[in-house]
């Protein structure tokens, strides 16, 4: 059964490439690139300047399995009505899609600190951007090395 | 109904910043994978998570396929008054789930 499936997959993969290159599966190149990440960032910040600081993005530097990676973002802000974080956006360079998560928050949060688990398709740079209520944008970046990638692998 | 786990302190002092942890069981199928005959597996993810505290929205997250299966989200809020904290997840294929917890603020 398993043999049959891989044989079929192999044939589909081989025939889908006109040039006769041999691949096991027809991989559609759906990866984001640093350029698409920049485009996604532009969409959020517009023409505003992006400054480094205030944001602390934390991810393990070496990830064994990209399917679930703990990530936390903290923004240095008093979270008062006059001075708070309006949104936190996280972007990646090499997943199929540049966005990771977009969060809206405000003074009721008390503290701008979030945590979640993400998927990483490759060793890449992750960027977190905080949007303050005064319209300024602050960022932090982290480079992550991933040994087993997520997103693009196929179920067995 | 997907299984959801929510961790909110049962009691808090007024003005205290409390941590809320949520986890919901969901495969978060990215839409970028193929099955063993090369057919694309359609996307099935949770796209939005909203938390309201006594009717006031305190947190909202837009999720993308880059969020791992069984989305786990942790955030903070200020304990203002006793009442209900409500969580709502919505997503592809008309996925919608609401959970709520009660909190006592002294």
Verbal overview:
- The complex is a heterodimer of chains A (156) and B (106).
- Chain A has helices at 2-15, 34-45; strands at residues 50-52, 55-58, 62-65, 69-75, 85-92, 99-105, 112-118, 124-132, 137-148.
- Chain A has 156 residues and is α+β, with helices and mostly antiparallel strands.
- Chain A folds into 2 domains: 1-29, no CATH class; 31-148, Sandwich (Immunoglobulin-like), CATH 2.60.40.2470.
- The longest helix of chain A has 14 residues, at 2-15.
- Chain A is elongated.
- The termini of chain A are close together.
- The termini of chain B are far apart.
- Chain B has strands spanning 4-7, 11-12, 17-24, 46-53, 56-63, 72-78, 83-91, 95-105.
- Chain B contains no helices and 8 strands.
- Helix content of chain B is 0%, strand content 54%.
- Chain B is elongated and about 60 Å long.
- Classes of the chains: A alpha+beta (156), B mainly beta (106).
- Chains A and B meet through helix 1, strand 6 and strand 7 of A and strand 5 and strand 6 of B.
SSE run of chain A: HHEEEEEEEEE
What's the architecture of chain B in CATH terms? Sandwich
Order of helices and strands of chain B: EEEEEEEE
At CATH level 3, the topology of the largest domain in chain A is: Immunoglobulin-like
Provide the structure class of chain A: alpha+beta
Query: Using DSSP, what is the number of strands of chain B?
Result: 8
CATH T-level fold name of chain B: Immunoglobulin-like
Mean pLDDT of chain A: 83
Instruction: Order the strands across the largest sheet of chain B as they lie in space.
Output: 2-8-7-4-5
Tally of structural domains of chain A: 2
Task: Present the secondary structure layout.
The complex is a heterodimer of chains A (156) and B (106).
Chain A (H helix, E strand, L loop, with lengths): L1 H14 L18 H12 L4 E3 L2 E4 L3 E4 L3 E7 L9 E8 L6 E7 L6 E7 L5 E9 L4 E12 L8
Parallel strand pairs in A: 1-9, 3-9
Antiparallel strand pairs in A: 2-4, 4-7, 5-6, 5-8, 8-9
Chain B lengths: L3 E4 L3 E2 L4 E8 L21 E8 L2 E8 L8 E7 L4 E9 L3 E11 L1
Parallel strand pairs in B: 2-8
Antiparallel strand pairs in B: 1-3, 3-6, 4-5, 4-7, 7-8
């Amino acid at each position: 059964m398993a043999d049959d499936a891989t044989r079929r997959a192999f044939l589909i993969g081989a025939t889908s490439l006109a040039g006769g290159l041999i691949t096991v599966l027809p991989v559609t190149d759906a990866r984001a690139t640093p350029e698409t990440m920049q485009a996604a960032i532009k969409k959020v910040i517009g023409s505003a300047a992006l400054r480094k600081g205030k944001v602390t993005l934390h991810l393990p530097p070496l990830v064994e399995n990209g399917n679930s990676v703990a990530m936390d973002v903290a923004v240095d802000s008093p979270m008062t009505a006059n001075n708070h974080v309006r949104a936190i956006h996280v972007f990646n360079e090499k997943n199929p899609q540049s966005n990771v998560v977009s969060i809206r928050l405000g003074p009721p949060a008390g503290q701008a600190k979030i945590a979640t688990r993400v998927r990483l398709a490759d060793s890449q740079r992750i960027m977190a951007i905080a949007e303050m209520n005064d319209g300024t944008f602050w960022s932090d970046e982290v480079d992550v090395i991933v040994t087993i990638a997520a997103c693009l692998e196929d179920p067995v | 109904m997907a299984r959801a786990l929510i961790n909110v302190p049962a009691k808090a002092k007024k003005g205290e910043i409390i941590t809320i942890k949520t986890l919901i069981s969901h495969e978060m199928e990215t839409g970028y994978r193929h099955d063993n005959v090369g057919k694309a597996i359609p996307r099935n993810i949770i796209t939005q998570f909203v938390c309201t505290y006594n009717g006031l929205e305190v947190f909202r997250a837009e999720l993308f396929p880059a969020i791992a299966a069984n989305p786990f989200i942790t955030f903070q809020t200020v304990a203002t008054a006793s009442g209900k904290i409500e969580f709502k997840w919505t997503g592809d294929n008309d996925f919608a789930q609401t959970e709520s917890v009660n909190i006592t603020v002294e």
